[in-house]
Specification:
This protein has about 450 residues and is α+β, with helices and mostly antiparallel strands. It contains twelve helices and seven strands. Strands 2-4-5-7-6 form a five-stranded mixed β-sheet. A two-stranded antiparallel ribbon has the order 1-3. Helix 2 packs antiparallel against helix 3, helix 5 runs parallel beside helix 7 and helix 9 crosses helix 11. The radius of gyration is 37 Å and the shape is elongated.
Length: about 450
């Protein structure tokens, strides 16, 4: 099944696609047969009991043993196909031939059972044997459409048995046209038409589903290749940009410190602007690399027992300089109780940095951001509450999605990549933690993180 990848884009891949399609049809057929195995056994046992009681015990026993032999053969071959992992065209043909052989054996056993049953009845309305054939043929039409050539063989065998039973009575008895034997023969013709039509419908539906399945799989494979190319592109570009940007940032830091030479007053605002934009680019590159690693499942957390309260305190201390420059106060209210969890310290610091920087960014001068850490019912709860602009209710569904912005216009007041909260959510998911928020537009927002604490 995995071999569908890039097959549609290669010349001369028709035989390969046909082989994969045959494998898929074969496994579909066998799985359906295995699922209905016990239903068939119940039906065969019931027919054998009826035949033994009402007709002939010896004939019923012989026919039932023939059926069991055919079913045992089919079961052994089906189990081999189930565990088969696919292979060459020759292997596919071999298993297909084995399945067809076992199914023909089973079909002949059922048809023989019905004929023997009708033979023991003599000229009559052969309700039981004809119903057995009808049930078997309808069963094949509904459940054996995955392999059309096998379905055709089974319908031919059942159809010949169907016609033989009433036709034999007509030849032996030679009744007038108004006899019930003629009515039975004509009715059999209508039943055969119904079964053939049902078979055609199910085969057409299966083929249509197969085409849709193959089309969807090919589209999925193309999308996966495009996603991989995108990830590789982002990773390469980000790594190539990080080195020169780091050098530029170092040079700007050196110039702004005055170590190289005294900075003219008119150049200071330009250097500050260059510094801010360099920081934004480095932040964007870092978040793009994080996102690419997360999508590729390449981030492995270094989990250990950590004190969540100490991590929050460290994050608050680290962002204090940014808060002072923004003229915003960050107040950490601690319970003094150790909140021990299993976590990755560096990633949890990243989570807190994202939440705190967002709170500062959306706050006005003089606002207070309140951070708390406490134990509530065995859960460590971290809250970051700001007095900023708030989050509209309609933005709740897209807030944690990548590249989402509350204000996505070209003239938006607040900068950012739109990746911070998405990365935060992904990191918390890997920790088995929850994140939620409550917000009132124009009043403020409170983000809540919930972790499971370690037992004492």
């Amino acid at each position: 099944m995995r071999d569908f990848v890039v097959l549609a884009d290669k010349p001369g891949s028709g035989k390969r696609l046909q082989k994969i399609r045959s494998e898929h049809q074969l496994k579909d057929f066998v799985k359906v047969g295995m699922n209905l195995f016990w239903q068939r056994q119940a039906m065969f046992a019931g027919v054998a009991l009826l035949t033994a009681y009402y007709f002939d015990f010896f004939l019923a026993s012989i026919c039932y043993l023939f059926l069991l032999l055919a079913e045992a053969t089919d079961l052994c071959i089906s189990k081999k196909v189930i565990v088969w992992k696919g292979g060459s065209v020759r292997e596919t043909r071999k298993y297909l031939a084995l399945v067809i052989m076992s199914q023909i054996l089973s079909t002949l056993a059922i048809a023989s059972f019905a004929i023997v049953m009708s033979w023991s009845e003599g000229p009559a309305l052969h309700f039981t044997p004809l119903f057995l054939l009808f049930a078997a043929a309808l069963f094949a039409a509904v459940n054996n459409h995955q392999i059309p050539q096998l379905l055709l063989i089974k319908l031919v065998i059942y159809g010949l048995a169907f016609i033989f039973i009433p036709a034999r009575d007509l030849i032996v008895v030679r009744p007038p046209i108004d006899s019930y034997l003629w009515l039975q023969f004509i009715t059999v013709g209508f039943v055969l038409y119904f079964i053939v039509d049902c078979s055609r419908i199910f085969v057409d539906l299966y083929r249509k589903n197969m085409r849709q399945f193959e089309s969807l799989k090919l589209e999925r494979d193309r999308a996966m290749r495009a996603s991989e190319a995108k990830s590789q592109f982002l990773s390469t570009v980000s790594h190539e940009l990080r080195t020169p940007l780091t050098s530029i940032k170092g040079s700007l830091d050196l110039m702004r410190s005055g170590a190289a030479s005294e900075i003219p007053a008119e150049l200071s605002p330009l250097l500050d602007m260059a510094q801010r934009n360099t920081d934004r680019l480095l932040l964007l590159i870092g978040e793009l690399l994080d996102l690419q690693k997360m999508e590729a499942s390449q981030i492995d957390l270094q989990l250990e027992a950590v004190n969540l309260e100490e991590i929050v305190q460290e994050a608050v201390d680290a962002i204090s300089h940014y808060a002072r420059n923004s003229r915003v106060e960050v107040a950490f209210e601690t319970s003094g109780e150790a909140l021990m969890i299993l976590g990755d310290k560096s990633r949890l610091l990243q989570v807190m940095a994202n939440l705190l920087s967002n709170a500062i960014k959306f706050s006005d001068e003089g606002d207070i951001i309140r951070v708390s850490a406490e134990n509530e019912g065995g859960m460590a709860i971290i809250r970051v509450a700001d007095q900023g602009i708030g989050i509209p209710q309609e933005a709740r569904d897209k807030l944690f999605k990548p590249f989402s912005q509350l204000d996505a216009s070209d003239t938006r007041k607040f900068g950012g990549t739109g990746l911070g909260l998405h990365i935060t959510k992904r990191i918390l998911d890997k920790h088995g933690a929850n994140i939620d928020f409550e917000s009132v537009v124009g009043v403020g927002t409170t983000f809540s993180l919930e972790f499971e604490t370690l037992p004492d």
